[in-house]
Amino acid sequence: MKKEFWLERWERAEIGFHQNEINPYLLRHWKELHPACVGEVFVPLCGKSLDMVWLRQQGCAVLGVELSAIAVQDFFKENGKSATHINNGKFECCEADGIRILCGDFFDLSKQDLAKVSTVYDRASLVALPPEMRERYARHLVDILLSGTQILLITFDYPQAEMDGPPFAVSVNEVEALYGKYAEVRLLAQEDALAQNPRFKQRGMSRMQENIFLLTLR
What we know:
alpha/beta; Rossmann fold; globular; 7 helices
């Protein structure tokens, strides 16, 4: 999936993936990360997620990465924050009130960029990528994070033939295949997603669940 796909989605305001409320699984399972707010919390492909505001309210320093400058601008504007802007090589760094967002390509991130990260929150990153990109994404993420980093990962699982992604279907087995060599993979919960997402039922989905994982990098 090319960068232009996501840039065009933001330009056209086709952002049905954006949630106007804090993710309920973040609220429910954040306490299972220990310690939850030591170092920065990294939110890959963050968009303008309100979850970053909630994480900051818990006392966490937040670091996001986002391809679309529109998403980054909207995040700070809609949350009443006046951000400073610094050009940092491959990224435009925007920061306000303990939240930093690097505007640029996730795959350009280095270990230095994530040197202070101890926790990752991935609600909409892995599932936004087609199969051929997910292995590259997981390997790059593992390569730039420190041992011991915890990842709260939320994925969708459904019959892929019933709907074109994104969000793409990512099964429990795939998560284990992607991360099992590098992390302890713990399945925290499985939830029926159709009840909370009628738009998917309207698209003819017969089954959809959300899987919530806690990964701990070795």
